[in-house]
Amino acid sequence: MTDDASFDAFYARAYALVVGQAYLLVGDLGEAQDVAQEAFLRALARWRFVRTLEDPTGWTRRVAINLAISRWRRHRNALTAWRRRADPDTAAGPGADRVDIVDALRGLPPRQRAVIVLHHMNDLSVADVARELGVPEGTVKSDLSRGRASLSRALADTRI
Amino acid sequence: MTDDLGTHLRSAAAAAAARSVRPPVTAIRRRLVRRRVATGSAVVLVAAVVVAGATALEPRSSLRPTGPASLSATATRTPYASPSATPAAAALPTIVASRGDETEDQPLVFLSPVTGRVLRSMHVGLGDQPLGHPWISYDRSTIYFVRVTTSCSTEIVSVPSRGGPDVIVANGYAPRVSRDGRRLAYLEPADACSDKSVLVVRDLGTGTERRWNAGAGEDIVDLDWAPDSTHLAVIRQVPRPSAEATSGIGSAGYFDNELWILDTQAPGASIDTGHQVPGVKGWCDAVTYRGPEGTLVVLALPGHGDYPSVLSEIDPDTGHTKEVVRFPHPVNDFDYDASGQHLIYVWNDTLYRWVDGRSVRLAGGINSAAW
After folding, report:
1. Helix (H, G, I), strand (E, B) or coil at B179
2. Do the beta carbons of residue A107 and residue A153 sit within 8 Å?
3. Of B1, B10, B35, which has the smallest distance from its Cβ to A160's Cβ?
4. Does residue B125 contact residue B107 with C-beta atoms inside 8 Å?
């Protein structure tokens, strides 16, 4: 398969994973799409390298994570996108349970949100999350605990 | 408990993904090419005085001390005024810029450095091919620019600044002609649809070429000729494990950016044969030799994707860095005038001039500019 064709196939296969994760991290579908496209652009820029990796999707997801974190740093004083109550797209919205979890995530501070998503959705270990975010492992554990508690309260759902 | 949370999160992510229309892959490819065109630093240092409104570019020779400075001069800089000093409007050269919007002709435009008004247009595009990287030869007689040819390739084109037929010079991007006008340096993609680049230096008199690969690095990002027209400053990216990288995520994942000085007269075919300026330079993606003395300046993000962009002087011997401009936002492209006193830059398809420590918007629809 040529580099061109292999990237096209990879893009088609991985886009949903990357944009979905980005959505949980940035809280706005439009921003999530921007983050995802930027991540894929960077994958394309180094596709000859990325395609040799064991997990190109994982690499691209990591890029998206860092882009999302960078955006938080750029907009330290603004959780506006995250706290928007409606997405700009006109497609059918998610079900009530999904709105609940997204709204609950919106209520978390950015770092807690990142810790929750990285650990529970991406299955990163506490050590890996700490390395990704540049914080001590104890901070990650604390954020996990507090984040889960906050989500439980927000969702009033004892399953979490 | 945690399994349920993971399930909830994955379900919400999947729902969001289902509502997101995946752009065609050609859109990603096109963005990459456009960025490659737009984000290189236009680093020509020109010294002409062109009165605003003039339609021709005057040679710089009558305005600047002649004779190339030595490379060592970069380490012992002559003090100069802050770039924020208010310029004398009449002494500023006309700006050459490429339009960032996808207009039918994609012209190069000549702009007033004071008002941003278009003084002249030059129609050099073919259809809707994006243009970028305008660069002016030291005598201001020739403009070089980059034209996108396919979704994965670009060509360097030259055109007389007074107008005339354009000539395809090479396949590549980031053209830089030495101050003595004898050599063209540029970046040539190592393969189609890859932005891993090879540095090429062409003798414009004989047509002979030399090539340097990135060596231990993954890619070459930007370059500029030293005042001596022999040495090149080169930025290259070096891949690192995420835990070790200090520059954060670059265009290819975790990278550190290094600044190297390459003697183009010395043997070798790798950037490794040059001299590395000590230290890692953050997420820097543009370098220039500023003013007649050739002060080495890089454009960088402070690290780990933090914004805004900053311009810093760097001592090539010690690596000592001194921040000289902190922009209010990221910057794609910048250029000093020949004196090194006045600065223009581009961000988000908008051209700005840096005046008295603040940004002054000059024109929209610009993706790259040179002074």
Report:
1. coil
2. no
3. B1
4. yes
| Closest in A20, A91, A159 to B4, CB measured | A159
Structure tokens at A11: 């893009």
**Residue B86, Cβ neighbours under 10 Å: how many?**
10
Inter-chain contact B11–A7, Cβ cutoff 8 Å?
no
Closest CA–CA distance from residue A24 to any residue of chain B (Å) = 6
Chain A residues 1-60 within an 8 A CB cutoff of chain B: 3-4, 7-8, 11-12, 15-17, 19-21, 23-24, 29, 32-33, 36-37, 40-42, 44-50, 59
Helices A3-26 and A56-74 pack at an angle, to 10 degrees, of 40
pLDDT of B57 above 90: no
- Report d(CA A19, CA B99) in Å as an integer: 31
Nearest CA-CA partner of A45 in B78, B179, B219, B69: B219
Q: Take residue B190 and report the two structure tokens written for it.
A: 């190592």
Q: What is the DSSP letter of B339?
A: T
With beta carbons less than 8 A apart as the criterion, state whether B135 and B370 touch: yes
3-state secondary structure of B32: helix
- In chain B, residues with a C-beta closer than 8 Å to the C-beta of A42 are 249, 251-253
Highest mean pLDDT among B137-151, B242-256, B282-296: B282-296
What does A2-36 look like in DSSP terms, one character per residue? -HHHHHHHHHHHHHHHHHHHHHHHHS-HHHHHHHH
Give how far Cα B310 sits from Cα of B26, B133, B327, B330, B349, Å.
32, 20, 6, 8, 18
Angle, helices A29-45 vs B2-19, to 10°: value is 90
Residue A54: count of CB within 10 angstroms of its CB = 6
Band the pLDDT of B237: cuts 50, 70, 90. confident
Q: Which residues of A are less than 8 Å from B28 in CB distance?
A: 11, 37, 40-41, 44
Tokens of A19: 């944009």
* pLDDT mean across residues, chain B: 76
Buried (b) or exposed (e) across B293-306, using 16+ Cβ within 10 A? bbbbbbbbbbebbe
Structure tokens at B158: 């030259």
Give DSSP secondary structure letters for B36-73: HHHSS-----------TT-SSPPPSTTTS--SPPPGGG
Q: Which helix (H) or strand (E) holds B310?
A: strand B310-314
Nearest Cα to Cα of residue B331 among B359, B363, B365: B359
Whole-number pLDDT of residue B368: 84
Name the pTM for this structure. Answer: 0.61
C-alpha B99/C-alpha B147 separation (Å) is 12
If DSSP codes are grouped into helix, strand and coil, which group holds residue B176? strand
Tokens of B100: 């960032």
Cα angle value A41/B37/B328 (rounded, 5°): 80
**B20 vs A29, A45, A67: nearest CB:** A29
Calpha distance A62→A130 (Å, rounded): 14
Name B11's Cβ contacts closer than 8 Å, sequence gap at least 6.
Answer: A97, A98, A101
pLDDT category at A100 given cuts 50, 70, 90 is: confident
